[in-house]
């Protein structure tokens, strides 16, 4: 895969640090004062953990259903009946009472924010088939009909909201592509895409990449292709998206200049080459402008863009406290102000840490399937109980 996951990237960075240390090279040579760095993360505020986790865990909500979203105390459940019929339900996690429900299947590709997306299929008495794409407000269940298709809407994945439009990837009216909807029930624009494309909403543009076909960029307001499909090469094996452009990489990590990566604007124009161009990995879902790619990389930042942790010569530095994270921890989430961390502890599952690296609480459920939605820790994994872990005081 060309897009390296947060976990894989972190493991690779640590392994590289260890290798360079053993070979006599120091990642600390020329390392800046991390506290002086500042970044400009953009993304839904809910991708950062609630600072209340610094005081530990509160109540939890559990269900056997798969989850499609969480916002303002309401979790979205995808419930499948014995007869195969599906229903999407909004449930208050504190009262355990259902707030709203609607027939149809919600998307398990969860988009951070206050909306969930679902498809409902029905047949009129006269035999007319409808496949409807809906956008639902999670706290209230308010329904916006995005599109009504005479053929089944399949493999859909919402990318999010921007520019007054909702962006969805999938198959509609028998056509595979990217679709934009303005809420009037009609398609505002569409652009054919590869069925296996992994697309990311970048604000004014959408970037798509596919394992074998390469990458492309589309103007999110008009649907016009601004960078035609570009194949992978030995020097461009992955693309790193930014809010105002992108970088390509050969997938290697080096501190000697051999890994200089070109930066491009959304027209595909090369702007410059930057050694080791990259951006923080946490929180997942945040995007950064290209200027941030030119700084020494830290690995996690607060909502205001201040460094929380960074990999150094031997260990993981917790920037705000100056402490080092003990061996065996892999960070998977950061609080809005950096006061708490979600981390995988080798051989012990997930734990909550404070800003100094001290364990606050352990979280059952293995080490995969965790996400941060509306500031809250959510866990779901196939065949397991889905759980919402509220912070202390909630």
Write a structural description.
The chain has one domain (6-391): Methylamine Dehydrogenase, Chain H (7 Propeller). The protein has helices at 6-22, 290-293; strands at 57-63, 66-71, 74-80, 86-92, 98-103, 105-106, 115-123, 129-137, 143-149, 154-162, 165-172, 175-181, 187-192, 198-201, 205-210, 214-219, 225-230, 238-241, 246-249, 260-264, 270-275, 300-301, 307-311, 316-318, 323-325, 329-334, 340-345, 349-354, 359-363, 370-373, 376-379, 386-391. It is 5% helix and 46% strand. It is mainly β and 394 residues long. Residues 1-29 have low confidence and may be disordered. Strand 4 and strand 5 (98-103) form a beta hairpin. The protein starts with 5 loop residues before the first helix and ends with a strand. The chain has a four-stranded antiparallel beta sheet, with no helix packed on it. Strands 2-3-4-5 form a four-stranded antiparallel beta sheet, with no helix packed on it. The chain contains two helices and 32 strands.
Proportion of residues in extended strands: over 45%
Which ranges are low-confidence, i.e. pLDDT below 50, for 5 or more consecutive residues?
1-29
The separation of the N and C termini measures 39 Å
Oligomer: single chain
Strand order of the largest sheet: 1-32-31-30
Q: From the coordinates shown, what is the CATH architecture?
A: 7 Propeller
Cα gyration radius (Å): 22 Å
CATH hierarchy, class? Mainly Beta
Structural class comes to mainly beta
Biggest β-sheet strands, sense, barrel: 4 strands, antiparallel
- Estimate the helix proportion, in percent: under 10%
> What's the count of strands?
32
Enter the CATH topology name: Methylamine Dehydrogenase, Chain H
Q: So how many helices?
A: 2
Overall pLDDT confidence:
88
* The number of domains: 1
What coarse outline follows from CA principal-axis ratios?
A: globular
């Amino acid at each position: 895969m060309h897009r390296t996951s947060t976990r894989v990237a972190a493991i690779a960075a640590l392994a590289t640090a260890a290798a360079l240390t053993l070979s006599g090279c120091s990642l600390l040579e020329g390392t800046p004062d991390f506290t002086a760095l500042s970044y400009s993360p953009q993304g839904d505020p809910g991708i950062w953990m609630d600072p209340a986790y610094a005081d530990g865990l509160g109540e939890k909500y559990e269900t056997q259903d798969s989850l499609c979203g969480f916002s303002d105390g309401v979790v979205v459940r995808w419930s499948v009946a014995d007869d195969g019929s599906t229903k999407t339900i909004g449930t208050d996690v504190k009262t355990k009472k259902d707030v709203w429900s609607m027939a149809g299947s919600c998307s398990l590709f969860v988009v951070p924010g206050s909306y969930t997306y679902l498809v409902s299929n029905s047949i009129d008495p006269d035999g007319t088939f409808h496949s409807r794409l809906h956008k639902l407000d999670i706290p209230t269940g308010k329904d916006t009909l995005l599109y009504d298709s005479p053929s089944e809407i399949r493999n859909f994945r919402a990318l999010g909201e921007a520019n007054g439009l909702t962006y969805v990837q999938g198959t509609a009216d028998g056509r595979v592509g990217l679709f934009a909807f303005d809420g009037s029930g009609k398609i505002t624009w569409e652009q054919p895409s590869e069925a296996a494309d992994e697309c990311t909403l970048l604000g004014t543009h959408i970037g798509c990449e596919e394992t074998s076909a390469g990458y492309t960029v589309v103007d999110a307001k008009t649907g016009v292709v601004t960078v035609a499909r570009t194949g992978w090469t030995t020097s461009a094996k992955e693309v790193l998206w930014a809010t105002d452009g992108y970088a390509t990489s050969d997938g290697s990590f080096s501190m000697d200049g051999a890994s200089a990566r070109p930066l491009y604007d959304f027209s595909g124009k090369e702007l410059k080459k930057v050694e080791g161009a990259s951006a923080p990995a946490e929180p997942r879902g945040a995007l950064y402008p290209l200027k941030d790619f030119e700084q020494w990389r830290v690995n996690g930042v607060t909502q205001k863009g201040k460094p929380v942790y960074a990999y150094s010569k031997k260990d993981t530095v917790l920037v705000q406290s100056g402490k080092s994270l003990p061996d065996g921890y892999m960070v998977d989430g950061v609080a809005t102000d950096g006061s708490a961390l979600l981390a995988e502890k080798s051989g012990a599952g997930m734990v909550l840490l404070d800003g100094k690296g001290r364990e606050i609480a352990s979280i059952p459920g293995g080490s995969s399937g965790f996400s941060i939605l509306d500031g809250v820790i959510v866990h779901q994994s196939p065949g397991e109980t889905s759980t919402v872990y509220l912070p202390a005081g909630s």
